[in-house]
Amino acid sequence: MTARSLAWLGVRTSNFAAMAAFYRDVLGLETLRDAPDDARFRLADGTEVHVYGPHDADHDFFGPGPVVALLVDDFDATRARMVAAGIAFIGDSQQDGTATWNHFRAPDGNIYELISRA
Do 103 and 67 form a contact (C-beta atoms < 8 A)? Predict the structure, then answer.
């Protein structure tokens, strides 16, 4: 198992408008999505930053801090190794046309994400 890089950062916040403005207007990140309770941005290296508001039910399991995704080459092998080590995943793996991911609770109690890209 090799974690290649940090691939994604997500945060759920009650200060949604201010955080979206921070990434968009202060840092000048490229806007990918600007919807109520869901704003998405891209850094110059392609890493995405997602901001979720308090009414975004899909991410209600996030804690108070940012959630970071670890990019790996082999999602299935890495996930299996983590499960064997006692890591608890949250729900089933998800997939779209370009990536497979699954959130998990790390030994420090925080939520992280495992992701691989096609």
Answer: yes
